[in-house]
From TrEMBL:
SUPFAM superfamilies: Glyceraldehyde-3-phosphate dehydrogenase-like, C-terminal domain (SSF55347), GroES-like (SSF50129), NAD(P)-binding Rossmann-fold domains (SSF51735). This is Bi-domain-containing oxidoreductase. GO terms for molecular function: nucleotide binding; oxidoreductase activity. The keyword Oxidoreductase applies. Keywords: Oxidoreductase. Residues 173-279 form the Alcohol dehydrogenase-like C-terminal domain. CDD domains: 2-desacetyl-2-hydroxyethyl_bacteriochlorophyllide_like (cd08255). Residues 524-653 form the GFO/IDH/MocA-like oxidoreductase domain. The keyword Oxidoreductase applies. Residues 396-513 form the Gfo/Idh/MocA-like oxidoreductase N-terminal domain. InterPro entries: ADH-like_C, Gfo/Idh/MocA-like_OxRdtase_N, Gfo/Idh/MocA_oxidrdct_glycsds, GFO_IDH_MocA-like_dom, GroES-like_sf, NAD(P)-bd_dom_sf.
Length: 739
């Protein structure tokens, strides 16, 4: 008779297959966060979080901002700091989405601002997250939540241009409120604080006059402003506010009170002034604008307004950062913050440098821990599925040429990759170049020649209209630079061949940003295909459908760049086929390992006022006999169409919208003759993976995984499809050119 352990060992694989086929492996994410363990004791503690639930997101921190007044009060356990110890401080957070739960408004890899604590990772309700505009650097965006507190307090006063405003308190929220008052046209603006320590900063924030009450207490009686905004939370400060306001004026109480005033004449003074007292604490703000009497919900309107003001440069925040710290220095930072007379205004915590706090996504078999416990052995440490930093090599130095829509996504990927950096930015629109360069502390220009002359630049990443890919890539390679071009490689086969010829002559490495082959679904599907899940491939199908509004053809999705190239056949090379389905054609080549032999296609322009096609359909035969179909449109009303399949002699894989497969074989722990949904995939960071692997190829002196030859192969399929539609006959693809 078998022992319990022998029985478990003999059946473990079968149990694991069944459990993981249904539930997937267990997943946790490890990182670190700040805790106030007790009064005046701050520590950095390890934390473990589970993947987000419905309408939640899991965030990886880039930076967080200390709110000195609130956090100092909690650290010192002052009155009205709610909750027992340990306490978790912080609410000003910027980071990227590692995972998004069902129904979330943001997706994996999005940069977001969030109401979240000081930690390297956090799970946050969707209602406390907002996608970050592409041109706002994290160190500025992190002021959003605290800036929104200042803004909603200021708005409660309903100030008119030319009205006088006094701000009582010169901490971080006070400095932001002074700047908002200046933007709104208040005059004069008066900063009031107990001592002179922070009043110098108040003058930089737009104050016309400053008052230090400890040195000149009688000065308050001479102020007489239309509005007083109280931000200190000190109980006696409400008496100072009443003294400073004019008769019939407005007093806005924004600060969290730290005690009870003992002034017996407070109500009498308020009645004599006839002032209006308005509660303006951030907790009174509604989640939506339907709350009676308010029009500015915190996340949408307040956060959005602050971000727009920062993006436009009207609300300056850089000088409000008085210190930057990394996680190991956090305990000492709070000790300094608690000292009497500390002059800190904004303290920034950087979480994005590698360390023990760096988030790791870990997976573990459902059965491994059960067996380990019965054996009375320690459970094995789960293996990380996001690799840590690689061996030390100099980062590949890249210049971004073209700083419009897609360039912002690429620049974020380059910043996230451990082996790449941006050292120059170029665009004909100087504002776009400047905004992107600010994210990387790099120089910027409108002159391509200046980029090519920069010896720091090793690689040029071109994100320009299609017709400029070939001439600019050739110019860069002849200047000694490696080149990445956004998809497609060019807008015709002849230009692609010229690019490859120059790469061969100069020794430059050329790649095309066909990054979607690195999506989690496709990488996992390729593993299943290689392990025989579908057998010999018999067929593929691609259905793609979205809506392109008329504005897309002139300003794109975001409106960052005004141009007409997308609708021009000469400049774009085509429409939905070359712009969108080129990605799909690339990763189907990569998945199947098959080349298209010949193709028959039809295309038309039915709904958009442009020269390029907005609908295309094609049938093609692969080498080896398999048949593929493709259908795409940019005018599909309602839910988008997005379905892709690969099938063969042994099974079928559905790639999108959800990765599923069924096989006659038991593959990779999954049972045969059943449909399996593949779950617990890592977050999609395909652009980051693409640039990482390109940089590795450069450093190794080898051809990248996505080569110029791949770009040419895709272009041959596209151009053969266009020729087929024009000639209304099948076209051979293998040696196709435009001669």
């Amino acid at each position: 008779m078998k022992s319990p352990l022998e029985f478990l060992e003999s059946t473990r694989d079968r149990i694991q297959q069944k459990l993981e086929a249904k539930f997937g492996p267990t997943t946790v994410v490890r990182g670190a966060g700040v805790q106030f363990k007790s009064k005046e004791k701050a520590t950095l503690e390890r934390i473990e979080l589970k993947p987000p639930s419905t309408k939640e997101v899991l965030l990886k921190a880039t930076c967080s901002l200390v709110s000195p007044g609130t956090e100092r009060a909690s650290y010192l356990d002052l009155p009205n700091t709610l909750g027992n110890f340990p306490r978790i401080p912080g609410y000003c957070f910027v980071g990227s989405v590692l995972m998004s739960g069902r129904g979330s408004s943001v997706q994996s890899a999005d940069m977001v601002v969030a109401w979240a604590p000081h930690a390297s990772l956090a799970v946050v309700p969707d209602e406390k997250v907002m996608r970050l505009p592409e041109d706002v650097p994290p160190e500025r965006a992190v002021f959003t939540t605290i800036g929104a507190i200042a803004l909603q307090g200021f708005r409660r006063a309903h100030p008119e241009p030319g009205e006088s405003v006094a701000v009582l308190g010169a901490g971080l929220i006070g400095q932001l409120t002074l700047r908002l008052a200046a933007i709104a046209g208040a005059y004069p603006i008066i900063a009031i604080a107990r001592t002179k320590q922070r009043l110098e900063a108040a003058m930089r924030s737009g104050a016309d006059l400053t008052i230090a009450t400890a040195e000149d207490p009688e000065a308050l009686d001479k102020v007489g402003t239309d509005v007083v905004i109280e931000l200190t939370g000190v109980p006696e400060a409400i008496g100072d506010a009443i003294r400073a306001v004019r008769p019939g004026g407005r007093i806005i109480l924004v600060g969290s009170t730290r005690g009870v005033t003992e002034d017996p004449n407070l109500l009498t003074a308020l009645h004599q002034k006839g002032a209006v007292l308005i509660g303006g604490h951030f907790a009174t703000n509604p989640k939506s604008s339907t709350f009676p009497g308010y029009q500015w919900p915190m996340r949408g309107a307040e956060w959005g307004a602050v971000l727009n003001l920062i993006a436009d440069g009207r609300l300056a925040v850089d000088d409000l950062i008085t210190d930057r710290v990394e996680p190991p220095s956090i305990p000492q930072m709070y000790q300094q913050l608690a000292k009497e007379g500390d002059r800190s205004i904004g303290v920034l915590i950087r979480w994005d440098k590698p360390g023990d706090w760096t988030p790791q996504i870990l997976t573990q078999s459902l059965t491994t821990s059960i067996v380990a416990k019965l054996q009375k052995q320690p459970e094995p440490a789960p293996a990380p599925i996001i690799p840590g930093p690689r061996a030390e090599t100099p980062p590949l130095r890249i210049a971004m040429v073209g700083c419009g829509e897609i360039a912002v996504q690429n620049s974020k990927a380059i910043k996230a990759a451990p082996n790449t950096s941006i050292v120059h930015a170029m665009d004909l629109d100087i504002k776009l170049a400047k905004r992107l360069a600010a994210l990387h502390e790099a120089p910027y220009t409108t002159n391509f020649e200046e980029v090519l002359a920069n010896k720091e630049v090793e690689t040029v990443f071109l994100a320009v209209p299609h017709h400029l890919h070939a001439p600019m890539a050739i110019q860069a390679m002849k200047a000694g630079k490696h080149v990445i071009v956004e998809k497609p490689m060019a807008n015709n086969v002849a230009d692609c061949e010229k690019m490859l010829e120059v790469a061969q002559q100069t020794g430059a490495i050329l790649s095309v940003c066909y990054c979607q082959r690195y999506s989690p679904q496709l990488m996992r599907a390729k593993e299943l295909i290689e392990k025989g899940a579908v057998g010999r491939i018999l067929g593929t199908s691609i259905t793609f459908g979205q809506v392109r509004n008329e504005s897309y053809w002139t300003v794109g999705f975001t409106g960052r760049v005004k141009t007409d190239w997308r609708g021009s056949r000469e400049k774009a090379g085509g429409g939905v086929l070359i712009m969108n389905l080129c990605h799909t054609l690339d990763y189907f080549r990569h998945l199947t390992g098959l080349e298209v032999k010949h193709i028959f296609a039809e295309y038309a322009t039915l709904t958009h006022p442009v020269e390029v096609e907005d609908i295309v359909s094609a049938t093609y035969q692969y080498e080896g006999g398999g048949i593929g179909t493709l259908c795409g449109s940019t005018h599909v009303v309602g839910a988008r169409m997005d379905e892709e399949r690969v099938w063969g002699s042994e099974g079928q894989i559905i790639l999108r919208p959800i990765l599923k497969f069924s096989s006659l074989r038991a593959v990779d722990g999954y049972s045969a003759n059943r449909w399996h949904e593949v779950k617990n995939l890592p977050p999609p960071i395909e652009r980051q993976i693409f640039v990482e692997r390109f940089a590795e190829a450069i450093r190794a002196g080898k051809e990248p995984e996505v080569s110029g030859k791949d770009g040419l192969a895709v272009q041959r399929i596209i151009e053969a499809a266009y020729a087929s539609a024009q000639k209304r006959q099948p076209i051979e693809v293998e040696n196709f050119n435009n001669a």
